[in-house]
Amino acid sequence: MRSLLLSILIFCWVLPLCSWGQTTFKLQGRIQTEDRIPVADASVNLSDGSFAITDARGAFVFTGVLAGTITLVIRSLQIEPKQLALTVNQDTSLVIRVVEKIQNLEEVVVESEADAFGVRQLRSVEAGGLYEGKKTEVINVERLVANKATNNARQAFGKIPSLNIWESDNAGLQLDIGGRGLSPKRTSNFNTRQNGYDISADALGYPESYYTTPLQAVQQIEVVRGAGALQYGTQFGGLVNFKMKRGSTEKPVSFESH
Fold first, then answer.
1. How far is the first Cα of the chain from the last one, in angstroms, to the nearest whole number?
2. Residue 100: which region, alpha, beta or left (left: phi > 0; alpha: psi -120 to 50)?
3. I need a surface site. Which of 37, 90, 112, 213 has the fewest CB within 10 A?
4. 84 has which bridge partners?
5. Which one is the CATH code of 23-98: 2.60.40.10, 1.10.10.10, 3.10.129.10, 3.40.1190.10?
6. In terms of pTM, does the model score above 0.70?
7. How does DSSP classify residue 74?
8. Where are the domains of the chain?
9. What is the pLDDT of residues 68-107, one digit of tens each?
């Protein structure tokens, strides 16, 4: 009985000494790509259940690693997974090179209509004019949902912001639009042009417009609002330029009816 008690006491005294005698080490390292670029936010797992996350320099540190052979696994979305078998018998510092994960994507072609709503902006330089930073619109007459035979100004210019449109007649003979809060009467505050040429009665002294270009013959309407139109004249409201349809280059004579 005494020998049994003595054996138990010796075992209880020796066991803590064995535990205290186990040697642990420090394992640290840096993870880099083949181009020596640090891999941040990578997961580093050891076979004993320990894990760490690399910092901005790609560095990781483990303390209290028991001596022996362990397995180290590295995972990240930006690299191919890597697994290493290490024998730890001293403090160890590693530099681990990994392979970047490269995914080749197929070519993607995105197509979009430039004037999905029948209105687009003038390019920075177009037809000899400078429009960078200007408030401009180009109305595609072919895409207008309007009765072109009546020259209805509200239907033609309805998508242009900040315009005052006055319908003074039902025949479409008189165009009355204004901008910047100016009077729309006879478009006197707009520089009105057809294919780039003034069609007002007198562009400087008496700028009222008595002639309205028929929409059925127009390809597009260019509108420059605000001070950007001063490069064409003294009217503060803006510029309206009716660009006419071009005739067929394949036929000596052609006509169309609506």
1. 122
2. beta
3. 112
4. 72
5. 2.60.40.10
6. no
7. E
8. 23-98, 119-244
9. 899 999 999 889 999 999 898 899 899 999 998 887 888 8
